[in-house]
Write a structure and sequence with these properties.
The protein is mainly alpha-helical and 160 residues long. It contains 5 helices and 3 strands; from the N terminus they run αβααββαα. It has helices at 9-30, 36-56, 60-80, 99-118, 123-157, and strands spanning 32-33, 85-89, 92-96. The chain is globular and about 50 Å long.
Length: 160
């Protein structure tokens, strides 16, 4: 007998992932209207989801090294945030994130999601992947900081 697909938690997990990835990919490729809350909202949600998943496999060394990876990523994201571009459309300021930072996050996120759904994977495989995902989340938040700072200058000076 065929079971109801909605009873399967993995189905809901995959639907949730597809929704996140579709929206974030569209916004990263085509840009989005600038609002400081919007800039930080998505990376903050990714970080909270990552911390939630990390807490399931909680060990002190893993958590501490993941946080260090996040901090390193945030610092690098501020420096690498120069890949952000701005443009005006209809008198409103829009922005596009750096494609490379987004792709690094996307690849690490998809790989981690695949390993979560596909099979139980060893701790030695998940540990570097968790650190990479925290690092790329830090990159996104650091880039967000750079983006807000640059937008403030654009609005103040009126020059792109």
């Amino acid at each position: 007998m065929i079971s109801n697909p909605f009873e399967n938690t993995y189905f809901l997990y995959l639907v949730f992932l597809a929704l996140i990835l579709t929206l974030s990919s569209y916004r990263s490729l085509y840009g989005r209207k600038y609002r400081p809350f919007r800039v930080f909202f998505r990376p903050a949600i990714y970080l909270l989801l990552r911390l939630g998943l990390l807490s399931q496999d909680f060990t002190d060394p893993l958590f501490i090294t993941s946080l260090l990876g996040f901090l390193a990523g945030a610092l690098m994201g501020v420096k690498l945030g120069s890949g952000v571009s701005f443009y005006y459309s209809g008198g409103d300021l829009y922005y596009k994130r750096s494609v490379w930072i987004y792709l690094l996050w996307l690849v690490s996120f998809l790989l981690r999601a695949y390993l979560k759904v596909d099979s139980p994977t060893s701790f030695t495989v998940l540990t570097p992947l968790n650190k990479l995902l925290m690092f790329s989340s830090g990159l996104l938040l650091g880039e967000s900081y750079h983006l807000v700072t640059k937008a403030r200058l654009i609005r103040r000076d009126g020059v792109l």
